[in-house]
## 1
Amino acid sequence: METRMPPTKDKDIYSILGVSRGASEREIKAAYRKLARKYHPDMNPGNPQAEQKFKEIQAAYSILSDPEKRRDYDRYGSDFFRHMGTPGGASAGGRDARYRTMDWDEFVRTFGAGGGSFGDFDDVISDLFGRTTRTRRPSQAVPEKGADIYQNVTVDFIDAAKGTAVNIKVNREVLCSRCGGTGAEPGSQPQTCPVCGGSGQIAGKRSMMGLGARVCPRCGGTGQIPGKVCMKCRGTGRESKLEKLEVRIPPGVHTGSKVRVPGKGLPGRNGGPYGDLLLNVQVRKHPYFRREGDNLYLDVPITVTEAVLGAELEIPVLEKHVRLRIPPGTPSGKVFRLRGKGFPHLGKAGHGDLYARIEIVPPVGVDMHSRELIREFGAANPQNPRLRKFGF
Ligand SMILES: [Zn+2]
Ligand SMILES: [Zn+2]
């Protein structure tokens, strides 16, 4: 039998509620109430981060509010979640390894609000909001969008400015191509789930939420299990897939930009849509452009002659180069601003500016005759530029 044991994430559920390991029941309840009020979906409509946080708070409280579960958690740490897959712990069930392994994320999905029953939380929540909401009894598992996955991608400086297409390889889990994700061998007859007896729900003392009913973890609420396990995925409903993708990187990205590729994340649960692929962009350094926000900075070396007489320079910009006129007597450090010659703004029209900073470079390898000319020049222009600044 194949066992798929996901790496156990170390999750300190005490820190989720912001309490110490030695916190009393009262402290835990107070912390829970405070956080549940803050992150409750009704208080944060359309905010998925708050919803996720709320679920984690619920899941953490479901353990820490129950002395027996809390003791087990203190003892086993994150291994605790592994045994939550089947009602009654690891000793029950046992035929299908899929349901016996669980990590924190899955635990949250199953036992946080929305996945499982509110159970005795209903009381606390209705208490919080001054109403009674014994709502959302699970009859069917709710379709959930799959998780997003992340991948790094590095682009050249100029490509980041102009936009580009990158070719990437994505290795991820997708729904099994043979069974379509059901885990059942095509053509086999489904059987009634032995855990819930076909109702899709389980109830009773051994459920996580006290007496509340919740979605059957064995069949996921459908009430049926495969008669014969899929030959290709052995019932997991998943297979790994390596895919080559060409992804458009928009102009104006910077290091840290996220480019979303819809539908290329992990499969959803209970028929929900795939998650997304998020490309985490890194932009390579440029040999002479420096970028701050969408403004560009450039050091422009000029000769002493150009500084004294003024000049019309050719300087680089993102697309080829432009002319920059500098007046006679331009000092080192003088900055010229070229409007709209910086980086394009990401996702909207317009560009930043280019700041060209003058840097006077003395001539090298000067011959005798030129030295004589410079000496003459110095004698004809006896200036002391330090005098004004230092007074001597
Ligand atoms: Zn399959
Ligand atoms: Zn069932």
## 2
Amino acid sequence: MLNRQIVLAAHPRGVPVPEDFRLVEGTVPEPGPGQMRVRNLYLSLEAAIRSWLDGTANYFEPIAIGGVIRGPSIARVESSRLPGFEPGDLVFGLQHWEDYSLCDADTVLLRKLIPDPKLPLSWYGGALGGSGHTAFVGLHRIGQIQAGDTVLVSAAAGATGSMACQIAKLHGCRVVGVVGNDEKSRLLQQLNVDAVVNYRQEDDLAAALARACPEGVNVYFDNVGGQLLDAALTAMAEGGRIVGCGMISDYNNSANPTPLYNLWQVIERQLTIKGFLLYSYLEDIPAASAQLEDWAREGRIQAIENITEGLPGAGAAYSNMMGGHTMGKNLVRVGEPDDT
Ligand SMILES: NC(=O)c1ccc[n+]([C@@H]2O[C@H](COP(=O)([O-])OP(=O)(O)OC[C@H]3O[C@@H](n4cnc5c(N)ncnc54)[C@H](OP(=O)(O)O)[C@@H]3O)[C@@H](O)[C@H]2O)c1
């Protein structure tokens, strides 16, 4: 048996292209003491991976040329020398883009998954996994949302954004989404979002946000940073909260981040800006998971997904996602090792 792996072939320049990734074949790893071997089933494509491809360190080590791409997955335990995990268990954790990974007690985000068999397993990689958890923790713990708040969400048709919109609606908020094309606007209308701004069609973004949020924004769930954050600063209500979830608009060009001109509004409008990383709020995940699963069973949230079939397509799928061409959660169904 071989272990197919997707490695970094070149540091991307701007938006990653499929040629920045290469499929190689290695041997299937044997777990040592305290380790287990898992078979990856679904890879969860994450915007954060982009920053690891540039060769510079951030809150995780960069991935070297030839290194296997790191990313979270849903996996099944094949053989285990790690107490508490048995063959057949389903797990979520930060693994690699490959058929088989080794993990241990220090694997970031490692937890056993006990999915509801009535719900699709893939949902646990997005709406009921990291994307849903990030939206839930960001809105509640960081944004302190209250019924009646106006909540602005950027990258609103994406994995995290589509969940943030739905959770805020279920909480009784007025939700305004910002997206990059008309198909995404239509998706948000189906999700009952109250107003949508297509930022690519607006010459004056600040004016468009002010029109869509006439009483000001109480909570801005920011996935994008850059020009949208700068415009949103001018649309905030007095005492508003900005949830710093991500700054994807600069990830493809992190050496030249977009300047902000409206930071004075933080003082004038007495705003709070707080960033967060989900893995620092692991204690919130059980409650978030339980609530999200209940809503999914009741049909009150929709899991929007874009699933690529087969590990060899992972690089192209990632290129599409980071080019802004996708809606909902991007997953790769790994498939069998002989499907090349
Ligand atoms: N803090 C945390 O713990 C945490 C955890 C997970 C994710 N995040 C953050 O959440 C954000 C969304 O991540 P996701 O995984 O849910 O991705 P996603 O939203 O599913 O996909 C990316 C979307 O970002 C939008 N986008 C805006 N500006 C862009 C630009 N300049 N280039 C490319 N895309 C752009 C695109 O939608 P439009 O067409 O609408 O622009 C694109 O479809 C990211 O910033 C990510 O880092 C944070």
## 3
Amino acid sequence: MSNTGQVAIVTGSGSGIGRAIALHLSELGYQIVVQDISSQRAQETCELISSQGGTSINVVGDVTSPADIERTVAETISMWGRIDVHINNAGFCQVKTFMDITLDEIKKMFEVHVFGTFLFTKAVVPHMQARGYGRIINIVSAMGNGGSEFTSHYQAAKSAQQSLTRSAAISFIKDGITSNSVSPTTVDTNLFHENDENFRKYLGHSAGDELKRRAAGIRTTPVEAIDIARAVGFLAAPDSYHINGQVIGI
Ligand SMILES: NC(=O)c1ccc[n+]([C@@H]2O[C@H](COP(=O)([O-])OP(=O)(O)OC[C@H]3O[C@@H](n4cnc5c(N)ncnc54)[C@H](O)[C@@H]3O)[C@@H](O)[C@H]2O)c1
């Protein structure tokens, strides 16, 4: 590993896909800002980065809070003076029927996935514009391409997040900034297991069984968080300049 001097912020990197992205980008030589709402999870990721010889800072915060976002950006600039790559990864899912989803629950879904992506993008872009270079990568979802009986609010939010990816791509390419998405299908992370109770309530089986069912329905080995991270690493690279406004499905 050689330190490229480049700096990447990864939201929600205390766990799952975000942690895999943080570790992979660190292996590629980036200095990492580990951002997560959970201090303990973020600290664990920083320790893993350190154990593989990388450099990171831990900035705990909520992506729905403009103050937390500003603080993350300010601490990054104070530490390293630049932001090269920003990954909007923080998220969660909730299994519920259309009729059981409340207004507060759909608002929360949009606050985290859509408003969080919007606000964080707005906060990092001026620092990218100042240097004429940047990579914004949003972790959307294959579920954002359609609808379902049990995750309507999640799917609507992931669809809107993908729309923001495209608008940012058009808005900032003149400044040397690209904006793309990586869209996972199913990855075994906390996102599923935290819904165990509702899988049992609404679908009659556990989160683990849901993952087994999905794995049985595919012809390849299951997608892992590192597979998402490798696609992110590819899009983050300087020579991916001509890939803009795209979505890579994994
Ligand atoms: N796991 C999948 O199958 C799958 C599929 C498609 C898309 N995704 C997307 O991947 C992203 C990562 O999910 P994951 O599967 O790794 O889940 P995960 O639960 O393992 O990780 C999500 C992380 O985000 C953090 N987080 C949640 N809300 C936050 C907030 N408001 N502010 C800051 N941090 C917050 C959590 O603390 C957690 O560490 C999400 O955007 C999710 O929608 C996941």
## 4
Amino acid sequence: MLIVYFSHSGNTRRLAACIQRLTGGDMAQITPLTPYPQDYDAVVELARQEQRRNVRPPIAAMQPDPAAYDTLFLGYPNWWGTFPMPVAMFLENYPVGNKTLVPFCTHEGSRLGKSEQDLRRLCPQARLLKGFEVRGSRVDGAEPSVKAWLSELGLI
Ligand SMILES: Cc1cc2nc3c(=O)[nH]c(=O)nc-3n(C[C@H](O)[C@H](O)[C@H](O)COP(=O)(O)O)c2cc1C
């Protein structure tokens, strides 16, 4: 299993690390070549424009190579109701095909939003499993629910 994630302010990274501890999977980060601004208003506006224009921001080559894995966890913060555009870029650069895809998301109220629908659209052949969502501020206490989710899916 490979745990692929994008994180801007660290919440999704901590959730990815929790999944890593529980599954023993490998980890790989989606890194945009141009970092997003740290200023909240600036990143919110940029993300909004990227989504409107369906932009694909270039990302760094992934290590390890996702092609070598059958099951990909895919983690992201909810940005404007779905995953950030670097995640769409990842899906284009590393086609999921018929692999198993397991989404997880941090947010401030919108849960997974329409991200699962968007994943289904971009990866029509993938075996898309039930996603996990938690508020960014609650990631640190989320291990029991992460464990329950992974058990339910038969992944631990
Ligand atoms: C550009 C941007 C857009 C966001 N849009 C939403 C949203 O539509 N719904 C929501 O619940 N949270 C939204 N958030 C909050 C993030 O999803 C939340 O803080 C998340 O835990 C951040 O994850 P990270 O620390 O891994 O970057 C947004 C945050 C940013 C920076």
